[in-house]
Design brief:
Number of helices: 11
Order of helices and strands: HHHHHHHHHHH
Structural class: mainly alpha
Mean pLDDT: 79
Helix content: over 70%
Low-confidence stretches: none
Strand content: under 5%
Number of strands: 0
Amino acid sequence: MIIMVSEIIVNEFLQSFSTPLLDLFFGIITFFGHPLPWIIVAAWLFWLGYEKRSFMLMSIILVSSLFAGFFKILIGRVRPEGILVLENQAGTYSMPSGHATLAGSIYSFYEKKIKLKTKYVAIILVILVLISRVYLGVHFVSDVLAGLLLGYILGKALCKLERKVKKSHLKVSKFSEEKLLLIIFVIMIVTVFVLPETFYLGYLLFGYYFGFVIYRDSKWKIKTENKKLNIIFGTIILGILGYISFNSSGYFGIVGFFITGLYITLGWPFILNKTKL
């Protein structure tokens, strides 16, 4: 309790500089630690023919979300109280910060793959994401530092996994049908139960991986004459599906998010193969 009280001082200090413009700035910056924009990037990579890069980015999202969600439940630390809260996170736990974990994972994974100038920009962006979580009143300093450390470790671990993925064509023939379905089922169940606050992510990932396996075992090859139109129209449809799913409840929401994930790896590639877009 003493540590939490002393950390509140940091929140209060950052919020003492609060202005509408700064609130907007950190409200946008914090989004870089949310899975949604990176899911969109993963979709773009897939539609441009970089299937394995898309697979690894989505795997980073999955792993970081799972571990952050697991430790949130295990630690059970309440979010800051008695300060200005600029983002609604009521009823959820605080440590580690999921945004910091994801930001740390992505940076760690790509740390040795990007140029020095880009690395500096990435470091600044990660730091701003960490600050935004404290500024917005939803995390303590120790929450974001714990998330950053966890994410960095996970990113490095996934780098090793990537080497194995590169050696495999990820064909269904390399797995028995029973094992494949079991892996997908486990991914969905674990994600749904570990991430109750963002349960939709589990069904979206379920659809993504399910479609990915089918796509990789097919003879399809994404063909597009206009990459810009490919990305623009593909993203518009993805946004519509996501919006409908997010505003649906019960089984409609579940099915909607599954279809949204399936659309990324199977739906839009199918359309591209059948049209001259």
